[in-house]
Write a structure and sequence with these properties.
9 strands; single chain; four-stranded mixed beta sheet; alpha+beta; globular
Length: 320
């Protein structure tokens, strides 16, 4: 049996790639990292206009979903272009908001791009809590709509991933949120995003070693360089079917396997990209850094490699 994307799915991915290529996302990422959100909000609305967030929202609440395969396709492109913002957290929020009352009130705006969401356990740091308009937190009492964020923004390894603490309390939305279900969606989106980050790092590095010369020839012609790039390519191509296979089943163990494989492949590619670029790869002014830091940050987001491997070994029983 062959599992291939159909023409409509390929056209969707191509259209997103074209739109994001024209959007000059590196400049958007740098503005976002400085706390200047205007260009990022504009790009967010364009991404939403393409239907990306609607893929996680049920049709009953003005969405197109749930459609995890198409969502994974979209997140590969979002990662390929290093789009900033609480992308995964917005998908997770859509999965958490299952009670009819809160869902009807909050999900249409998420699907249309009029709202951004972030989500985190109570007392922990939430991604982009300063810019999100829907802030969800959960504790032993259930899922709450946090009233705001507290304290200064905290920097993270990836400058575009800005962290804030959510204020305690707020409206109780449901005493029994579907956390396991929401974590599965978050891990799938993270895996697909990491795959896109890895593909971008590989493409940029291949282009660079074709241009950089040593001893009068491109360094890409050296066998040692070819071997490193081939290893990175194999790791990413091995991760790709796991990501889309997990999107088909939405089994927690399959998704955990996809996340650890895609994130480790992206991280390996980041290390290869840094080594082959040399000292220029370390500089924040060079665009490669936008993907390098994201690969490292996504590796630990919504389940680090150890947690995900434990889920796989337990057959999906350990879901938090």
């Amino acid at each position: 049996m062959r599992f291939l994307l159909d023409p409509e799915q390929r056209a969707f991915a191509d259209s997103l790639n074209g739109m994001l290529t024209a959007a000059d996302t590196p400049s958007v990422v740098r503005s976002w990292s400085r706390g200047e959100h205007a260009s990022g909000r504009s790009l967010w609305r364009r991404v939403a206009g393409a239907g990306v967030f609607a893929l996680a929202v049920p049709e009953a609440y003005e969405g197109l979903g749930p459609r995890p395969v198409e969502l994974a396709l979209a997140f590969v492109e979002l990662g390929r272009h290093a789009v900033p913002g609480p992308l995964v957290e917005t998908v997770m929020a859509a999965a958490l908001l299952t009670e009819p009352g809160p869902a009807k009130r909050l999900l249409p705006a998420l699907a249309a791009g009029g709202a951004m969401a972030t989500a985190a356990p109570a007392g922990s740091y939430a991604l982009d809590g300063d810019v999100a308009t829907i802030r969800l937190s959960w504790d032993t009492d259930g899922l709450r709509l946090a009233p705001g964020h507290d304290g200064p923004v905290r920097a993270s390894l990836d400058p575009a991933r800005r962290l804030t603490r959510l204020l305690p309390g707020g409206e109780l939305l449901t005493p029994e949120p579907p956390l396991a279900h929401a974590l599965t969606w978050a891990r799938l989106a993270t895996a697909a995003q990491a795959l896109g980050v890895g593909l971008a790092l590989l493409d940029r590095t291949v282009a660079y070693v074709k241009q950089r010369t040593q001893f009068g020839v491109p360094v890409g012609s050296f066998q040692a360089v070819k071997h490193q790039l081939a290893d990175a390519k194999i790791a990413l191509e091995f991760a790709r079917p796991l990501v889309f296979g997990a999107a088909l089943t939405m089994d927690p163990a399959d998704v955990a396997a996809a996340k650890v494989t895609a994130c480790e492949a992206a991280y390996r590619t980041a290390r290869t990209a840094l080594q082959l670029h040399g000292a220029i790869g370390y500089t924040a002014e060079y665009d490669l850094s936008l993907w390098l830091t994201k690969a490292r940050a996504l590796r630990a987001s919504w389940g680090d490699p150890g947690e995900c491997r434990a889920i796989v070994l337990s057959g999906g029983d350990r879901r938090s």
